[in-house]
Design brief:
alpha+beta; 3-stranded antiparallel β-sheet; DNA polymerase, domain 1; OB fold (Dihydrolipoamide Acetyltransferase, E2P); about 20% strand; about 35% helix; 5-stranded antiparallel β-sheet; about 400 residues
């Protein structure tokens, strides 16, 4: 048993607002528990037996446990003598009403409509349903708890791949007002920048750590990233690593991508053309439309593109027409890529095309007896030699690109 002191609203990276019970510290199986998630506001009202106004007595007794002996949870509220004799003392209440604004940034909140993601609802006690998630409706980069997650996502390995930036270090840089949006990190490379010196003075950093961060940033600014990694770095909801590859292969260049983003009045028409791509659904398209309507996020994306070279991708929109009956060249084969590919095509893009559009069964990194085809680019000596020894078919990277063009023309 414990006592309920208050209920705080926690804001997650995706903007989800979660009520959290703040409890008297209680020993539970050798662990001192003082916080427990209440999942959502409907669950909080139910488990804490809130009144018709959505209120519960402060200091109410509750029964708690650890789900799976790990996660603290509130099982139910308990009746006690204090609650049944309010005349003996002044009763204080805790509100379990869903907040209409985000407690972190003040932006309006809304409920996801799980049946129709294109619609959203303002939080009212009459419309709340089980399973709906209350979210912050403001730009993620302008909401502090979400900004840390958004920046960590942008600099992650599958995105910009800036080494040495944990969420703890990002929090330090944000607290020092050195970083607000992803492009801010690249100011450390400006000739007149004092950013490196300022970072070296932060706790637990020092000159070496600051220098290492500068070198990691410089490496990204020099080598650039693929369009798919850039799109993934933007943290658009429902757009993961795989879907970023599909979208980038449809646009081919960052300029083409921003052309549709800038068509704010016709964004729905522009992005709905992605419906022709296998693997891209309406939920992703709605997320892209919502992203394009947010000026702050679009501006931040363009500022990042101005700092980091974005490599073009092979345009595959016409490859992916749903219902295409054209035979796929690599149908059922295991395809290995080796060496550099033409037109600055990334390895991930080539692998995606081989599987999604040309029918490859898999694209492993090593050659084996089960390999069906090896695509050889510049500098692909060792794997090509292994393929020759095993009698495996080898085609040049240029022939691979020609296959793509041939497949497009047939569709």
């Amino acid at each position: 048993m414990s006592k309920l002191n208050s209920v705080e609203v926690q804001v997650g990276r995706t903007g989800a607002l979660t009520p959290v019970a703040i409890l008297d510290p209680t020993d539970l199986g050798g662990v001192i528990v003082s916080r427990a998630s209440l999942h959502n506001f409907l669950f909080a009202r139910s488990v804490l037996e809130a009144d018709d106004n959505g209120n519960v007595n402060k200091d109410a007794s509750v029964m708690i446990s650890r789900a799976g002996d790990v996660i603290p949870q509130v099982l139910r509220r308990l009746n006690n003598s204090n609650e049944t004799a309010p005349q003996l003392h002044k009763v204080e209440y805790i509100s379990l009403s869903a907040p209409k604004t985000c407690p972190a940034c003040g932006a309006p909140t809304y409920y996801d409509d799980l049946l129709d993601p294109s619609e959203s609802k303002k939080p009212t006690n009459d419309t709340i349903t089980s399973g709906q998630v209350l979210r912050c409706g403001g730009p993620q980069l302008l909401c502090p708890p979400r900004a840390i997650g958004a920046l960590s996502h942008a600099y992650s390995r599958d995105a910009l791949d800036v080494v040495g930036l944990s969420e703890g270090r990002l929090q330090q840089l944000m607290n020092a007002s050195l970083i607000e949006v992803p492009s801010d990190l690249f100011k450390i490379l400006d000739p007149d920048s004092t950013m490196k010196d300022e970072i070296s003075k932060l706790p637990f950093w020092g000159e070496k750590s600051a220098h290492n961060l500068m070198e990691a940033t410089q490496l990204v600014a020099k080598n650039g990233v693929s369009l798919s990694k850039f799109i993934y770095s933007l943290g658009i909801r429902h757009i993961g690593v795989h879907s970023s590859k599909l979208i980038s292969s449809a646009y081919g260049s960052v300029e083409n991508f921003f052309d549709d983003v800038d068509e704010s009045k016709n964004a729905e028409v522009c992005f709905n053309s992605l419906n022709d791509i296998k693997g891209v659904g309406q939920v992703m398209i709605e997320s892209l439309i919502k992203f394009s309507s947010n000026k702050e996020l679009v501006t931040a994306a363009k500022e990042l593109a101005a700092r980091v070279p974005i490599h073009d991708e092979i345009t595959t929109l016409s490859l992916a027409k749903k219902g295409s009956s054209t035979p796929r060249i690599f149908e059922g084969k295991s395809v290995v890529f080796t060496g550099s590919l033409p037109n600055k095509m990334s390895r991930s893009t080539a692998q995606n095309i081989a599987i999604e559009f040309l029918g490859a069964k898999s694209t492993p990194s090593n050659v084996s007896k089960s390999t069906g085809v090896v695509v050889e680019g510049i500098g692909g000596g060792k794997k090509a030699m292994e393929a020759k020894m095993l009698g495996i078919e080898i085609i040049s990277a240029e022939d691979f690109v020609n296959m793509i063009e041939g497949h497009k023309s047939m569709n």
